[in-house]
Amino acid sequence: MKIAQNFHMNGGTGETSYSSNSFVQKKGIEMTKPIIEEAMLDLISEHSAASPFNTSQCLNIADMGCSSGPNALLVVSYIVDIIHNKYIGTWDDVHGDRSPPHPKILVFLNDLPCSDFSTTFKSLGSFYDKLKENYKLAGTDDEPQHQPCFIAGIPGSFYARLFPDDTLHFVHSSYSLHWLSNIPQGIGKCNKGNIYMAGTSPPCVVEAYMKQFNADFKIFLRCRSKEVVKGGRMVLTILGRGDDGKIKEEDLDLFNIPHYIPSCSEVKSAILSEGSFYINRLHTFEVTWDGEDEGTICGDDDKQLFRSSNNVANCIRAATEPFLVSNFEEDIMDELFDKYREIIAARLCKGKSRHLCLVINDKGVKICIFSRHVLESGHISLHLSLVLFLML
Prior knowledge:
This protein is of the alpha/beta class. The protein has helices at residues 3-6, 23-31, 33-50, 71-95, 117-122, 124-134, 203-227, 249-254, 264-274, 302-325, 333-348, and strands at residues 59-64, 105-111, 150-155, 168-174, 228-239, 281-288, 353-361, 365-370, 381-391. The protein folds into two domains: 3-289 and 355-391, Rossmann fold; 290-351.
């Protein structure tokens, strides 16, 4: 099976679409906003020091693994806001009320060719209108100097070159790099009864997944090191881990998901081995597993329990259904995820789940990873998350 042809999130805006079920991913992006801001301000400061208020050069930004829906434009809105506020503040100190010049911003949205770019592109008109209204930009639509930013789609795998040398100033990727370029070779029926690494998986399966992630991640870093200009930045958020069915058994035994949740040590090792980046410090943040506010507890509230478990089930369905359908029958999906929701509900009765995010920082690098959940009796089930801030 060719992953690039079969793997994508659920398209459209329906009940089980990624667009309608990416609330956990949104919270993760919101939590990394300070890191994105730090990276962009560092970048702007360097450019301003070299050529103050020079707006002739375009800032080229890529969001890799953007998928579809509102999250695809969330980081873009952050960046426009950061740049606008930076130049407004600096300009007002010297020039008063006159409108400040803004560097041109070109954003490339990247994902696999089979992804639903059209849903995102259909929302661009209202997105541009909102930006112009927020920043009170004057002029007409045919005057590009009044356009806050320009957005283009770049279909293709980020495990390959996507841009010419020295093209990008800033790269962002969130909840994408745990997806592998392919299913690890040689696992075959070794992982019998599982579709991923599990407690019953033999060591050879875990080793195969780890090697595939290590190779893929190094390729990603190597490709970006060529495409990002000297002094450019990257902010990456990656899922990670701490150091009865209608499906035929033989089909299940041959099915595996191209997905690996690395540990912090594995990510550190890959970065140091690849050689382009260096790590300095680490901190954490948490995001609830079901996307609800942190204070929301399921307990004996049946309505809240159903809502939370349904949120989790739909989120997983939005991300995995197309790949599952390519291997199994489409008509079992409703029953499959109804059963999955029941399993999640039973888990949420025991305690609220969160994503724990780790942030590693250095002069060139900051990282965050997400770990598998570990249920503490009566408390919280934790996911470890990893965010990287990288600089060439």
